[in-house]
Amino acid sequence: VQLQASGGGLVQAGGSLRLSCTASGFIFSMSVMGWYRQAPGKQRELVARIRSGSNTNYADSVKGRFTISRDNAKNTVYLQMNTLKPEDTAVYYCKLESVRGYTANSWGQGTLVTVSS
Hints:
The protein contains no helices and eleven strands. It has strands spanning 2-6, 9-12, 17-24, 31-38, 45-50, 56-58, 66-71, 76-81, 90-99, 102-107, 111-116. It is globular, with a radius of gyration of 13 Å. Helices cover 0% and strands 58% of the residues. The strands form two sheets. Strands 2, 4, 5, 6, 9, 10 and 11 form a seven-stranded mixed β-sheet that branches. With 117 residues, the protein is mainly beta. It starts with a strand and ends with a strand.
């Protein structure tokens, strides 16, 4: 399993970024994928999750601002982040949570998002 995240960077508050995570080594279309984040001094937390049928769920803190999506033809999961806030500053990780119902628990390398006020 390989997960390659990209798209992080520095953005001003109110701005937007799109993160991408390209996967290989498993049947992507049958996977549950998640985006997590970890801010300095805080525990890693779930931001958004997307299931193989494209059902999604979000942390309350990002609902209405972030959108998770997937392109099974490209083996890629995206996180569109709008109306960014300084408190969104964190390292963002993609995670393979399960494939065909079997727990996987594989992480990408993380991409840093910094939101300036």
